């Protein structure tokens, strides 16, 4: 990161303090302070996000809409440079500057049902504020990101090309994963029959993408790169995937994976406190399905990456993606069992 970037925004590098920030795995992030003013500076990972311009254009459209329709709503969109640009290219990298929301903090794991409620409320609020916005104006910043049909195809393709060791190591998980294929049938029906509407969806609803205030109330959502047209099942489903179990996808001790039923209620109450009047009856019927949809898709993605030789997700040990897939398949099994027991 060079001084050119700060000067493009009218900041004097000699007056600024720049520190690495956050726990994101995809973009590089810094906290920039200049006296009482604070900002977030990010370089966008263009291996994953091929068109940083599409992200900037989307966020500008949404920002303009929200400023007009919901002036009090906090939407941390990128700031313009002195010459009115929303991206700065330096040494082949794309940078952007965002406002730092004062007196806010993030959390990394859900420890209480109140946190799950607050986060779900913020993601619901986000889609509610944008309910009147025509989602088809947005560009797909990651095309087919949550296209389950395609994820199944990629999985089957990987089975065809995987080396024999990888294939053998994953035999059991492949069989378990395949046993849930009816989840894909429901998805196909949703797409083909246009059962539920395309909305403005966040697509990355983990708890660390919510800002909390000092009283631990939600303020707003952040990490807006994957905001694009989608189905509400992506947002509610990823909350189910990441808020229910006290152990996350990295946990290797599978005994620690279980479903905290009170957090399901908290997700439903929080999300519906905003989206209750907006969701259609067909969407409401898919509330539990959303958990199965996202957990199974994530299991397939980890398993596919294992079969492909670990080319997408960073891994820290041999078999890491297989372990993540096992974890997610067990979470899915427990989720389905919980649903049957309710
Ligand atoms: C990736 O790196 P992170 O946590 O923002 C992935 C998500 C997965 C998640 C699983 C662009 O997100 O879809 O759910 O890993 N993001 C992308 O940990 O692939
Ligand atoms: Mg993210």
TrEMBL record:
This is Phosphotransferase. Residues 20-252 form the Aminoglycoside phosphotransferase domain. It comes from Mucilaginibacter myungsuensis. PANTHER family: AMINOGLYCOSIDE PHOSPHOTRANSFERASE DOMAIN-CONTAINING PROTEIN-RELATED, SLR1880 PROTEIN. InterPro entries: Aminoglycoside_PTrfase, Kinase-like_dom_sf, Pseudomonas-type_ThrB. Pfam families: APH (PF01636).
């Amino acid at each position: 990161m060079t001084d050119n970037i700060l000067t493009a925004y009218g900041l004097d590098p000699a007056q600024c303090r720049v520190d690495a920030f956050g726990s994101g795995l995809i973009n590089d992030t810094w906290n920039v302070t200049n006296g009482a003013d604070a900002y977030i500076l990010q370089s966008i990972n263009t291996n994953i996000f091929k068109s940083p311009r599409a992200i900037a254009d989307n966020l500008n459209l949404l920002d303009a809409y929200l400023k007009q329709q919901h002036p009090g709503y906090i939407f941390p969109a990128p700031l313009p440079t002195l010459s009115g640009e929303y991206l700065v290219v330096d040494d082949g990298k794309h940078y952007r500057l965002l406002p730092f929301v004062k007196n806010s903090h993030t959390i990394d794991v859900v420890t209480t049902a109140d946190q799950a409620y607050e986060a779900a409320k913020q993601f619901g609020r986000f889609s509610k504020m944008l309910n009147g916005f025509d989602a088809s104006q947005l560009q797909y910043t990651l095309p087919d990101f949550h296209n389950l049909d395609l994820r199944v195809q990629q999985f089957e393709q990987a089975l065809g090309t995987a080396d024999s060791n990888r294939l053998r190591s994953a035999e059991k998980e492949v069989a378990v994963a395949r046993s849930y294929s009816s989840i894909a049938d429901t998805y196909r029906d949703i797409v083909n029959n246009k059962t539920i509407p395309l909305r403005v969806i966040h697509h990355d609803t983990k708890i660390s993408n919510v800002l909390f205030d000092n009283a631990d109330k939600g303020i707003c959502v952040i990490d807006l790169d994957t905001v694009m047209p989608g189905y509400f099942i992506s947002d509610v489903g990823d909350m189910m995937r990441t808020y229910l179990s006290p152990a996350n996808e990295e946990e290797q001790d599978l005994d620690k994976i279980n479903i905290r039923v009170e957090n399901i209620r908290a997700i439903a109450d929080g999300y519906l406190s905003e989206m209750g009047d907006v969701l259609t009856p067909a969407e409401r019927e898919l509330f539990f399905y959303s958990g199965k949809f996202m957990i199974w898709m994530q299991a397939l993605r980890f398993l596919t990456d294992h079969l492909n030789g670990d080319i997408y997700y960073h891994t820290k040990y041999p078999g890491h993606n297989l372990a993540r897939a096992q974890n997610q398949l067990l979470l899915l099994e427990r989720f389905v069992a919980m649903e049957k027991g309710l």
